[in-house]
Amino acid sequence: MTSGELERDTDGDPGCSVLLKRSEQRYLALVDALTEGICVQDSSGRILQLNPAAEKILGASAAQMVGKTSADFGGIVLRTDGSPFPASEHPAMVVLRNGQPVTGVIMGLQSADGLRWITINSVPVHLDGEAAPSVISSFLDVTDQVEMQRRLASSEARFRDFAEGAGEWLWEIDTQHRLTYLSPRLVRQIFSSPAAILGRRRDEIAERVPGDAADWERLRAAMAARRPIREYIYRVRDTEGALRWLCINGKAVYDEVGTFIGYRGVGNDVTALRQSELAAHASEAKFRAIFDMTFQFIGLLSPEGLLLEVNRTALNAIAMDLSAVRGRPFWETPWWQHSATERARLKAGVVRAAAGEFIRFETSHPTVDGLIWIDFSLSPVFDDDGRVVWIIPEGRDITERKAYELELIAAKAMAEASNQSKSQFLATMSHELRTPLNAILGYSELVLAEAFGPIGNVAYAEYLGYIHESGERLLSVIQDILEISSIETGNVDLLPEPLRLDDIATKVRELIAHYAGSKRLALEIEVAAQDGPFVADRKRIVQVLVNLLINAVKFTDPGGRIGLRAEQSGEGTFFTVWDTGIGIAAEHMRKIWEPFGQVENPWAHTTGGIGLGLTLARHLVETQGGSIAVDSMPGEGTRFTLAFPLAAGAGR
Questions:
Q1: What pLDDT, in 10s, does the model give residues 436-494?
Q2: Which pLDDT score is estimated for 24?
Q3: Same domain as 459, residue 435
Q4: Which of 146, 349, 492, 534 is deepest in the core (most CB within 10 A)?
């Protein structure tokens, strides 16, 4: 019976009408009191009634909505994925089309107040006088629940991203130690598929090696006692057959009532680290072999001087084991017990090395074969912050070298004694030769000068001339020998004084002009303006220049040219002696500076001299801080350059 039929039946009974009215009022009051929104729509979809909860959820009053359809809702309606929600798919419209209830539909309502999510249940009903069904929809504001689910989904997604992107991966096993979860990343990297590993124990998928049973038993015992798993490493083979090392950490997990349900934890692929460790062990073994077998003594000290390591070579020298000396102050070890002086020297060296200084000295060590000489050093080793963390002592056996040095010292002493004897002999010989030569020259000069009257026969005069000339030549040779001897013994006397270049040139011209003229050679002397002082031994400078010019005369054909140029510049004072003579071949350049050195050429035996002129010239120039150089080309002449830098001074 419909409400209309009920009203007609109660028209004659006022009491019934009152009861009906009260029933409707109670119904409406109940509907209005619901926190769930209620919407009644007729068979065409027009809204007939909204309770206050519906008005609040929809954000519109009943006056605004009654008579309108769902399509007339002014806001934006969204699906949970954010796409538009078509009005034709509204649950009420679907119910009106097919007459079947629609429940649990979630949609979003976008309005000026923001986005709200509601869940709708719609059912068909028959209203008064209508053959077609109407629809009643109930809905709740589930915005908080939807946002919670979205945050939960986002959190889960972030967790998965972190788990996939982190260096560690996650695992879970059940009470039987069977894997129930493993991060997909690890499955992709190592195992072909989840099916290849899930449901199996670790010891079933591991690459077992002889002797590892005890390790696996300790792991099982720890899990049986529900103890945490710490840094357990095992090996597996990946899909390509390569060996991989995995390291796991985990703890026991219990449900809400305290029942053990398995283990959960994290793991790392430590293959690279393990391979590095193995390589380091191999490298250390190689280093130890080299360290022990190296020929020299080598060790390792703390900055305080305690012996931490020492190689087998050093230990064999004293016939002891490492345990007998390790940890002891280095200066208290057998290598240093023979000498208090050397111990003190070492101890002081360790202090300086600990401060960052490299120390090196020669010392001695007692060995089973006797005392040996050692070239010893202490090298500090620094960390990244510049602190000394170790000191490396090294010792090289130099016993043979020391013996050789002693032999060299003895040989040098003998050579010096021999050289001194030679110099003494030359000085004595020169004195013995010079004394009669002076008599010969003196008397021949008196005869030549006819000091006591004329010579009876002109032939005597010619012979006396030869005697005098030979005596002068022999005296010159003796003087050169004496000069060389004086230079070698360091007994050269120099008298430095300020000199004028034009005065030197004038003196040289006086001494060489006649000699050059006798061979019909043009003598060209040029002196540039002197801008600064030139301090040197006048006699020695003139001697060197005259000797060089005499050589120029000797080795220049008649009609040729010889010359001297003196000049100064910002770099010093320079003398150049040149000629247009026969020149010197490149292969003979070194020989001309050697004592008694003479170049083999057609002139060698006709020009005289014993080969000391250039040797003496170089010594006299260098003794006064200068240098001498030669430039020559066979057939084109020779040029000697004397250079005295501004800083040079006589007597250096």
A1: 667 677 767 777 777 666 766 666 666 666 676 666 666 666 666 666 666 665 666 78
A2: 63
A3: yes
A4: 349
- Residues 111 and 91 both lie in one domain: yes
Whether 593 and 560 share a structural domain: yes
Whole-Å CA distances, 324 to 297, 332, 378: 17, 12, 22
pLDDT band at 3 (very low <50, low <70, confident <90, very high): very low
Asked if residue 621 belongs to a domain, the reply is yes
Length of the chain: 652
Looking at the chain, the whole-number percentage of residues with pLDDT higher than 70 is: 78
Domain that holds residue 417: 404-485
- Distances in whole angstroms, Cα of residue 93 to Cα of each of 51, 69, 75, 134, 594: 20, 9, 17, 10, 126
> Is residue 116's pLDDT more than 60?
yes
Q: Is residue 11 part of a domain?
A: no
Distance CA 27, CA 465 (A): 170
* Domain match, 393 and 409 both: no
- Are 545 and 603 in a shared domain? yes
Domain-embedded: residue 287? no
Q: What is the CATH number for 430?
A: 1.10.287
How does DSSP classify residue 227?
P
For residues 373 and 388, the answer to whether their CB atoms sit within 8 Å is no
Q: 69 near 77, Cβ under 8 Å?
A: no
- Note the pLDDT of residue 249: 93
Lay out the sheet containing 37-41: strands in order across.
47-50, 37-41, 134-141, 114-125, 102-111, 76-78
Q: Which residue has the tokens 């008694």?
A: 596
pLDDT at 526: 94
d(CA 269, CA 248) in angstroms, rounded, equals: 9
262, 171: one domain: yes
**Beta carbons within 10 angstroms of residue 480's beta carbon:** 20
139 vs 189: CA distance, rounded Å: 49
Two tokens, residue 636: 């084109």
Phi, psi of 290 (to 5 degrees): -65, -45
Query: For the CA atoms of 467, 471, 474, 478, what is the dihedral angle to 10 degrees?
Result: 160
Residues 6+ apart with CB under 8 A from 37: 50, 51, 53, 54, 56, 57, 58, 118, 137, 138, 139, 140, 141
- 3-state class of 99 per DSSP? coil
What is the DSSP code (8-state) at residue 453? S
The structural domain count of the chain equals 5
**31 pLDDT exceeds 70?**
yes
Burial class (CB in 10 A: 0-12, 13-18, 19+), 651: middle
Report the DSSP beta bridge partners of residue 372: 365
* pLDDT of amino acid 17: 64
**Which range among 3-7, 32-36, 261-265 has the greatest average pLDDT?**
261-265
Q: Is the pLDDT of residue 398 over 80?
A: yes
CATH code, domain with 103: 3.30.450.20
Select from 82, 115, 149 the last residue of a domain.
Answer: 149
- At 129, list the tokens: 């006088």
| Mean predicted lDDT score pLDDT of the chain | 82
